Amino acid sequence: MTAIDRPSSVANIDPANDNVPYADVAAFDVRDLVDVDEVMEREELGPNGGVLWAMEELEANFDWLEERLAECEETVILDPPGQPELTMHHMALPQILHRIEKLGYQIVVIQLLDSVVTTRPSLYLSSLLLCVRGMLHLPYPVVNVLTKLDNLASVGGADLPFNLDFYTEVQDLHYLLPHLSAEQGSSQSSKWEPLNTALIDLIDSFSLLSFETLAVEDRASMASLVKALDRASGYVFAGARGVDDEGRTVEGGASIWAQAMGGEWAGRMEARDVQERWIGQREEFDEVERKQWAEEAKEAGAQVSSARVERAVEIASKGGVGDEEGDEELEEQRKWREEMAKDEGGSAAKVRK
């Protein structure tokens, strides 16, 4: 959000989060309202019970949350607890989100799933169950994301039995059955196969699941996810054409529905491209990316140096060449020109022009 100059705020609403990496820029922190350690000691609760109690306390003090949201930017990113109880059956989180929605916010829920789950069929299947339950419990647009794609190859992702699109599009899960049997051992496969089949049928019956992919340091990957989130929230349609009294779009502009169905709003990277980038040919792509970064750094340096030339000319035109600042500027620029001419021939002259 910062990189694309979109005003946004980030806040922690996880009362047990002792390591907030964005603490310096956090708009607010729920730990200022409730301390989970005090809750656990006073109410004689364990870690999960303490978090659930603390979330109920946040719900009971919603005025505190409302006041802090009023001070935030247009887009607010809330970092909630990761306990599955909150997204499976406990009512505090959905009730908090419902009250936030009544304040006028468009809510999108992002369920983050470490891509390492794809390396074990049983772990992937159980994770799908959690995602489905979360989508049923939280009645808002949900974007499911397979994260840490850049680490997948190093944790067994290079040996996946299926291509990545099988996991992102949650294709026919019955193909997992042989692999589940192999993981559980031949002596146990007959015992667990009916349960595995029932779970797969349950997930398939909802037809809710698909996954975006994310390698957080990859600009293209992050941009693709932001587009998907903007589509889920309706943000991409904020600039839609107006309509006349009869509901027809004016100035020949496309309707919101036409925009929604247009390919330019897809916002997804093809799974085969993600697999090629992070699993199949990661080293080759890394090398290409390093060269691109070097070119960008070189261009940025040239732009800075060109600005220094202009400043030196400005100082000279004002008769300030002899002052200390002007001398330093010109001497620095002279050294830079010599180095550039030595290393790259005519590029220094091009920059000066």
Explain this structure.
Belongs to the GPN-loop GTPase family. InterPro entries: Gpn, P-loop_NTPase. The protein has 2 domains: 1-105, Rossmann fold; 107-185 and 192-241 and 249-300, no CATH class. The longest helix is centred in the last third of the chain and has 36 residues, at 282-317. The strands form 2 sheets. It has a 3-stranded parallel beta sheet, with helices on both faces. It has a two-stranded parallel sheet with strand order 1-2. The protein has 16 helices and 5 strands. α1 (36-43) crosses α2 (47-60), α2 packs parallel to α5 (92-102) and α6 (121-137) packs parallel to α10 (186-206). The radius of gyration is 27 Å and the shape is globular. Residues 345-353 have low confidence and may be disordered. Helix content is 55%, strand content 7%. It has 353 residues and is mainly α. It has helices spanning 36-43, 47-60, 62-69, 84-88, 92-102, 121-137, 149-152, 164-168, 177-184, 186-206, 219-233, 256-261, 271-280, 282-317, 324-344, 347-352; strands spanning 8-12, 75-79, 109-114, 142-147, 212-213.
Number of strands: 5
Separate helix tally: 16
Oligomer: single chain
Task: Please list the strands of the largest sheet in the order they lie side by side.
Answer: 3-4-5
The number of domains: 2
In terms of DSSP E residues, the strand content is 5-15%
The biggest beta sheet, please?
Answer: 3 strands, parallel
Radius of gyration: 27 Å
Q: Report how far the terminal alpha carbons are from each other.
A: 36 Å
Looking at the structure, what is the overall shape?
globular
Give the helix/strand class.
mainly alpha
Which percent bin holds the helix content?
A: 55-70%
Summarize the helix and strand pattern as letters.
EHHHEHHEHEHHHHEHHHHHH
Estimate the mean pLDDT confidence.
82
Low-confidence blocks of residues: 345-353
